[in-house]
Each structure stands twice: as structure tokens, then as C-alpha cells.
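INFO batch 0412 | record 1 of 1 | parsing
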Amino acid sequence: MKRRLAILLGLVVFAAGPVLRAETDDEVEAHRLVLDLTGAFTNDGFKLRDGHWAGQIKPAERALVAVNLYAGNQYWFAAAANTKAKKIAVDLFDETGKPLTTETYNEGERAAAGFSPTTSGQYFVSVSFLEGEPTAFCLVYSYK
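INFO prediction complete | emitting C-alpha cells
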């Protein structure tokens, strides 16, 4: 378990706060695409969390974001990339690096994972780039 946690923490690319830098055109496009996807969640009563995470990702890479989640809430984590990405995935892990069972949505360059934690604490959201050319991605989440 310690090895899994060390690997997971070693892969963390982004902090839990917003990145203070100018976004590229590809990141802006990915942000627009992920907001289109999250519209479905807001129609179901989910509130979009302020802020987002954006960055560059290459095939076979994974970006991780540490988030604090609260028991009793429902969450949807959604990510998108521009059309250079053929397939991405969103997965969740607990604080030890153990993969969690989630509801999933995958549509090529857009993906989402839904989760309702039974314990409050720190979790990790993974955006995996499975197929395509290096590109930008954007991650947001909704809760209720």
C-alpha cells in the first residue's frame, strides 16, 4: 500500500488550486468542451465548482489532481481535450492509491466519473490520455 501511495503521489502533476498562467488556445477549447459536457450534470441539480484545472498531456500519460471530498455529497468529475485526443479517461483513487468504483461516461475526447464518498477526506482524480496526439485538457467537477 505504501508503494501504491508513493507512486500515486509521485505522479501528481497539479496542486488542488488554480494554475496562475495564461491558457493556450487548446486549453480554452478543452474548457469549452468540458463545460458542454457538464451541462448535463447541472440539469440534474449538480452545482459546478468554481475553477478548473488545465494543462498539456501526452499519450500514455496521466495527470492527477488532489481533491477534498465530503461524505454524503455526490460528485461528477469531467474532463475534455480538443480533437487531437482520440480517447481520454477519468478515474478516482482513495488516499492510499486504491482505484474506486465510479459511474463512468466516455465519449472519445470527453470523459467523466461520478462518485459518492462514504468517508470525507482527500482523493485523487486521474485524467488519462489513452489515444491521440499530445494536446491540452481541462478538468472540472460538479457536486450536490
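INFO post-check: Strands lie at 12-14, 47-48, 53-57, 62-69, 75-81, 85-93, 103-107, 110-115, 121-132, 135-143.
INFO record closed
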